[in-house]
Fold this protein.
Amino acid sequence: MSPVKKKKLTKLRKKLDHLDNAFIKLIKKRTIIVDQVLMLKDFKNQIVDRKRIKIILNKIKRKSIQQNIDHKITRRIWKNMIWSYINYERRNFKKK
């Protein structure tokens, strides 16, 4: 790799690092809200709402297409995030 390309690569990676830090802050905010949602659930079987998951994924696909983003990437990201939080809720569910 040429020195010029290496310098550009370093700058782009710094931009990615900055975005990653922003994502971490958003994930923290999302986790706080998920904790609040979890407190409202009375039974463990209320954690997974397949109808809502389908609606969310369809909405993300539509928004991705509108923004000219590869919808397969956003679908995979959201699907992983949704199921990661489902797992989180299952681990943290406390029966009342």
